Amino acid sequence: MHPLLAADLERLPDLLEDARRHAVAFLEGLDERPVVPLARTPAAVPLPARGDGLSAALRGFAERWEPGLSAGAGPRYLGFVTGGVTPAALAGDWLTSTVDQNPMSSLDPAGQLLERETVGWLRELFGLSDGHEGNFVSGATMSNTVGLAIAREWLGERLGVSPAEDGAAALGPVRVLSGSPHSSVAKTLSMLGLGRSALVPVATLPGREAVDPAALERALREGAGPCVVVANAGTVNTVDFDDVRALVALREKYGFWLHVDAAFGAFAALSPAHAHLVDGVDAADSLCVDLHKWLNVPYDSAVQFTRRRDLQARVFQNAAAYLGPLGDTPEAVHLTPENSRRLRALTAWLTLRAYGRDGYREIVERCAACAHTMGEAVAAHPGLRLLAPVRLNVVCFTLAENPTADRLAALAREMSDTAFLTPTVYAGRPALRAAFSNWRTTADDTERVIKALTAAVDALPGGAPAS
Q1: What are 167-195's pLDDT values in tens digits?
Q2: Which of 126, 155, 363, 399 is the 20 to 30 Å CA partner of 259?
Q3: Which residue range(s) make up the domain with 326?
Q4: ∠ Cα 56 60 62 (to 5°)
Q5: Are 448 and 319 within one domain?
Q6: Do residues 231 and 244 touch, judged by C-beta distance below 8 A?
Q7: Is pLDDT at 466 greater than 70 in this prediction?
Q8: Which domain of life is it from (predicted)?
């Protein structure tokens, strides 16, 4: 064994304790850390020919890279839709690396069995029936990819071909209809060989991001052949929800594949006040849920569900002498693009075991309350305009006067020490989004964000208009 490896192995308990202390110091400093530090790029250094052990490597990381890291795990990182890491999920992530399991084969079954139990817990958490079977994937993009790959095979089933065997060209022209699809849907269609042009936009309801069911029916009636409909349970800009029950009724009439992108909107099911938003989602043919959002587990983690595991295995089956057959319960290696990966389910299992449905209901309801508080503050400020109702956990707003992308970027930079907001465009207007999904975020954090936002608006050239 190399002497540095041997020395680190001998001192491993002490070195892990050093890493623990470093992690605790980072977490304890989140409240005072700039949420997004000013850009700082360390000078490049060459790969060392001779290392100097873990202790020196930890010091090098702390000196060169840690100062530029955001407080993404903290309570005022409101960009994108980003959760933090619950204490149980953090412990789960450390244990995941410690046990270093590849849960893809029944020849070494414990990890795979743990994942199946966790998928069952998640199915129950989101109010899904046993008709849905699921697997862990890396994120919402891959969850959408798996769901739409199954949909592609379903299209082939209707046409008497198998894209998995014959290629996507065997399908001929394909239509994928959606009102406000996430950008990952077009990316997925490109990867699946269906093409970005297969995505057909459908009109949304006035002033909404939710698809207009009447417009969708016209598109279904006018087209030929089987198609796919991508419904949204929580759009990125305004957390708008398609009327999935209405779409299910249309499916009965027109016979399409219904994929629901519920990356973070699925968590509305945990709150009695918001559960109506996801009515009908259980009827989906495939479903996307992202776990490193509101479940607050570390990157990367998501789950995909489908009612057609037989088609899923047809797409992703992997033949090798060392793998088990498909059978009635296919191994995980036959169900997603990856042949090997880490035991993603352990972080989810531990945090669900630790905090249960009630703990996650409280997180969802607290985040929603924080979003509503900020939405009310934005609506009351003369220099700001709320662009959509706060339906769940996202506040979408812009400047009342001269809302250019540059001015909004300057506004976000001005408050970046206190909070991180991401830019967007809604209804043709440059805007900012604040997404509340971190388990640490409290009413006090929300007040800090509101004060920082008010000060940043006043600091812009021209300031706030007179009320």
Answers
A1: 999 999 999 999 999 999 999 999 999 99
A2: 363
A3: 101-341
A4: 115
A5: no
A6: yes
A7: no
A8: Bacteria
